[in-house]
């Protein structure tokens, strides 16, 4: 039980005693520590309902409140109850956490299955830096959800059946350089795609040829299917290398093509159940008229007023669309994997698409908790969308390589004799890129600024990794192994009380990350923890203290290191032993 839960349950008992009937009370962490650690407005809420004086009611509640060994209280302002946690309660908590592999994090996801749909790049196109956001946020959410006890299924829904294949097939047949394909398959596929794309814009005949190749592919033409399969295979291999580097993994790679056979029957079912109807030859899902137009994803407003904004699931020429595949995918995940929740980590521009899919799924009788976890763009230091000199999107691989290179340079300057410098540069460089992403509010556009994200001081991964290294180095100075679980903990100075307070908060904070899918809450917590550690370390001698204080402080160091290591791990970031 967290300290917050403990307070809530004691407060609930006191409320029942005062009111003579059960009532629940909520407690929140106080925004300003000068007024205590936690706060409840229960007395104010209840006094309003019962038309009594809130401060008097707060006093009555406090008189019945048993906070022995946990906290002291104070009534503040119009009737807030403020709680100040006793140092011995934080000491007991730290002791408990040292023996707990979960570090006080409750298993709120137990018994629930969640599918996380993230990364999902398009085959035969390079992953660009925009995909980095989906990949890094999605991976972190998977790690956090698993730690919270969810059964997590990570699914890479790659775009392996798009219209780009018309151009790639034509390019493969007319422009392909086999040696270049062997050397760097994704680059060669991209080259032929770009060339054909440019030619098709100039020449309608080329466009027609591409369209024909696509139709043949969709009709199951053997030659085209063979080429398509090769493209998918080489692309997947190239992607796998990037995921290995990033330490990102998936349970499945069920791309769009996996659902091909299900699309025809799905459209038939939608027609038969009157969930869709034919309009100008196409099969479309329209509004069912049950929502206000502002809330209806199948209505949009133009000059004349509200008009239909249908989702097409089969074109007049028989072709299926992105929406058709997503409905089939959702059905599969519910029927085959028993998903209770599906989280789609996809950029803001697809907001309407997902609103339509979720609305249509509900009408279709597919129940579950479906979330579009959207994110904004990454900007260059000029605050424009990040582009290379030639105007292309910056490739993900180049960004990662550059991060590692720059980290290596910083390390060479600061610590030229470091062993395994290459490996550590990789850990620091990739950690910096991930943390720059995850410490932002996902919805805001963020500026990709190399020097800022690699700085050892500041809100960066290297700062956190360095804090961890600093703690590990304390333990290397000890003559014998230190057993933190047998240390008695006493908290004297404010700095050590504050450090223990943050230790206790870890288990309270982590579940809240999933309230609105904000790994930045965890990132910011870790920064706060590291800062608290540095203040503690300055104010409280550790190795130079006498026992039992020395062991108590060493145990606080150990717990800090464990939480930093675990917390960074949940962001997909590793901690080196030295740097
Ligand atoms: N391939 C798509 C893109 O790059 C993202 C797919 C997201 N997942 C989904 N189920 N629609 O834009």
Please describe the structure with a list of short key phrases separated by commas or semicolons:
579 residues; alpha/beta; Gyrase A, domain 2; Isoleucyl-tRNA Synthetase, Domain 1; four-stranded antiparallel sheet; four-stranded parallel sheet; binds arginine
Describe this structure in words.
53% of the residues lie in helices and 10% in strands. A four-stranded antiparallel sheet has the order 1-2-4-3. Strands 6-5-12-13 form a four-stranded parallel sheet, with helices on both faces. Among the domains are: 3-85, Arginyl tRNA synthetase N-terminal domain (Gyrase A, domain 2, 2-Layer Sandwich), CATH 3.30.1360; 164-246, no CATH class; 396-570, Isoleucyl-tRNA Synthetase, Domain 1 (Orthogonal Bundle), CATH 1.10.730.10. The protein is built from 20 helices and 15 strands. Residues 117, 120-122, 157, 159, 326, 329, 344, 346 line the site of arginine.
**CA-to-CA gap between the ends?**
36 Å
Biggest sheet strand order reads: 1-2-4-3
CATH architecture level-2 label of the domain at 396-570: Orthogonal Bundle
Summed over residues and divided by their number, the pLDDT gives a mean of 93
Q: Bin the helical content.
A: 40-55%
CATH topology of the domain at 396-570: Isoleucyl-tRNA Synthetase, Domain 1
Indicate the CATH class of the domain at 396-570.
Mainly Alpha
Low-confidence stretches: none
Beta-strand percentage range: 5-15%
Biggest pleated-sheet summary: 4 strands, antiparallel
Q: Could you give the count of β-strands?
A: 15
